[in-house]
């Protein structure tokens, strides 16, 4: 249930951003108080876009963890670590980006988007399906 609430909050913010709107301020707050993702505490880390790789492997690389303070430097370092890890596994076109989406005045959800790209072997691209073909 908690994941659904967090997902709903993130989705609402993402839709507002897509339409060029600013997220609402917290109910009862003064208009000058806007949501900020910097200096916010991470309430959830979401990893999107994985295909062949395990989210648990990626989570082990991250410095951005639940309860930590959002830091642009840490998010950049996490993206670099993810890309290096995936490239070492043959995903030489791998890209990772991270954003902190505020959910209230004190908390943020970190969303890490990963594009693995095709897996390469010996400089040639192949599909992510590494099972041997059934040729007769």
Key terms:
single chain, 136 residues, alpha+beta, Ubiquitin-like (UB roll), three-stranded mixed sheet, two-stranded antiparallel sheet, 3 helices, 29% helix, elongated
Detailed description of the structure:
With 136 residues, the chain is an alpha+beta fold. Helices cover 29% and strands 23% of the residues. The protein has helices spanning 2-18, 55-59, 72-88; strands at residues 41-48, 95-102, 107-115, 119-121, 124-126. The strands form two sheets. It has a three-stranded mixed β-sheet, with helices on both faces.
Give a brief description.
It contains three helices and five strands; from the N terminus they run H-E-H-H-E-E-E-E. It is α+β, with helices and mostly antiparallel strands.
Summed up, the helix count is 3
Helix fraction bin: 25-40%
Radius of gyration: 18 Å
Number of domains: 1
Please mark out the parts with pLDDT under 50 across 5 or more consecutive residues, or reply none. Answer: 4-11, 14-35
Specify the overall morphology: elongated
Averaged pLDDT, please? 76
Secondary-structure element order, as H and E?
HEHHEEEE
* Residue share in β-strands: 15-25%
């Amino acid at each position: 249930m908690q994941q659904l609430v967090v997902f709903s909050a993130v989705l609402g913010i993402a839709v507002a951003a897509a339409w060029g709107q600013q997220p609402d301020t917290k109910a009862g707050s003064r208009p000058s108080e806007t949501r900020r993702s910097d200096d916010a505490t991470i309430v959830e880390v979401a990893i999107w876009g994985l295909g062949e790789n395990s989210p648990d492997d990626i989570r082990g690389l991250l410095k951005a963890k639940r309860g930590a303070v959002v830091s642009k430097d840490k998010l950049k370092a996490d993206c670099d670590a993810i890309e290096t890890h995936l490239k070492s596994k043959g995903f030489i076109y791998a890209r990772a980006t991270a954003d902190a989406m505020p959910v209230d005045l004190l908390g943020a959800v970190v969303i890490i988007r990963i594009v693995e790209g095709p897996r390469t072997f010996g400089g040639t691209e192949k599909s992510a399906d590494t099972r041997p073909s059934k040729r007769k």
